[in-house]
Amino acid sequence: METPAILEQLVTDCQAALGHDDTRARIHQLVQAVVVEPAKLADQIPAFASGEVEVSPRGFRLGGEHIVHQSPDLTVMVLDTLPGVEQPPHDHAMPAFIGVFAGCEEQRFWTRTDDGLVPTTGRLLEAGEVVAFGVRGIHAISAPDHAPARAVHVYLGDIYDVDRSVFHPDTLEEFEMTSDRYDEFCRPR
Ligand SMILES: [Fe+2]
Questions:
Q1: How many C-beta atoms lie closer than 10 Å to residue 58's C-beta?
Q2: CA 91 to ligand 1 center in whole angstroms
Q3: 88 Cα–ligand 1 center, Å
Q4: Residue extents of the structural domains in the chain
Q5: Distance 133 CA to ligand 1 centre (A)
């Protein structure tokens, strides 16, 4: 996928928002603004070709991923979530912002307690909506509709170069995040 100009601009705007007292609020607003007219944004972001969607070792197709920007203080990407898979709970170890621009994401949330992970709530994230996570945020995503959920993801750090966790979907036991373990903890739905 070629990066559309609107996402190049989002990166520039996010970089300008870094290092302020209210960086998180600014980034939240920027992600909200970029998905405010979701159909218009969807028109500018090409669909992933089938060859761009990896099949995991266990046969799951999670969705295409296009990295727009990756640096130690900022990651911006387009991420599709395909139906048919319940993805496992995980953290990011950094603030994260997700703005959906097509389809619908089912978001489930957990919180850490002295007794381990506890489910809190969940919500459907429709096109045009944004969810923001703090450093300790834990979620799992799936696409409840029979269509991909497409979203812009912004992380305040390098999401590919950080120690973070994935949790067993049944026991909620915590493990170091690796792509293989993430795959192992996916379930068909
Ligand atoms: Fe996530």
A1: 10
A2: 6
A3: 9
A4: 5-188
A5: 9
Place of tokens 């979907």: 169
The answer to whether 83 touches 146, Cβ cutoff 8 Å, is yes
Q: Which residue has the tokens 């991420």?
A: 79
Tokens of 27: 């980034």
Structure tokens at 162: 């950080």
Distance in angstroms (rounded) separating the CA atoms of residues 29 and 34 = 9
Distances (CA, A) of 94 to 47, 74, 134: 28, 10, 7
- The pLDDT score that the predictor gives to residue 189 is 84
| pTM more than 0.90 | yes
What is the distance, to the nearest Å, from the Cα of residue 134 to the centroid of all Cα atoms in its chain? Answer: 13
**Measured in angstroms, how far is the CA atom of residue 93 from the centroid of ligand 1?**
10
Determine how β-strand 130-133 pairs with β-strand 74-81: unpaired
Cα of 92 vs centre of ligand 1, distance in Å, is: 6
Q: What is the pLDDT of residues 84-126, one digit of tens each?
A: 999 999 999 999 999 999 999 999 999 999 989 999 999 999 9
* 5-188 is a CATH 2.60.120.10 domain: yes
Whole-angstrom distance, CA of residue 3 vs CA of residue 36: 19
Burial of residue 125 (CB within 10 Å: 0-12, 13-18, 19+) is buried
Segments of the chain scoring below 70 in pLDDT: none
